[in-house]
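explain this:
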Amino acid sequence: MANVKTGLNSIVKYLSTKKETGRRSIGLLVDGPNVLRKEFNVNLEEIRDVLKEYGNVKIGRVFLNQYASDKLVEAIENNGFEPIICSSDVDVRLAVEGMELVYNPTIDTMALVTRDADFKPLLNKANEHGKETIIFGVEPGFSTALRNSADYVILLENDEMNYYDDSHFEDEDDDDIEYPTDNDVGKKTHRKKEALIDY
């Protein structure tokens, strides 16, 4: 089982140590009906801020169904994302847009915000074509198949951000990063900003 690391500063450091020479060009796709719910308290502004430490978010799209409120659409636009209103299945539209990112030569990294295992083939195709993949998953209900398919996994749970790290690396120069034991995983170490949007 991978070590679980906790805290926003730790996640920013985690992504910054993984990046290659130069900043990455990121395409971010958000599965709105699946994750933008009151019970999850997902904050898109915070996700964008974490990704900005790693690279430049060139594409940021939030996929919504036809029942999305005007207030939600406005909040998404105010956060600098492009709302995509789908009259049919949101998953199909997100998968099509995701495949466009896979074949987009200007995008190095694909980031998905979802819990849905339906996007595992999209991640596999992105990896096959040399794209880095980052998943922001939400508990409860985050797919293990997704977690095991992405290069980097950031978990949004109980108002904190954690990440899974298989490398077991530790940086002796950074004393403010805590690496929790299995007993510490449930403790809150970073309170997220209040979510700006929800379904």
Q: What stands out?
A: Residues 167-199 have pLDDT under 50 and may be disordered. DSSP finds seven helices and eight strands in the chain. The domain at 3-184 is CATH 3.40.50.1010 (Rossmann fold).
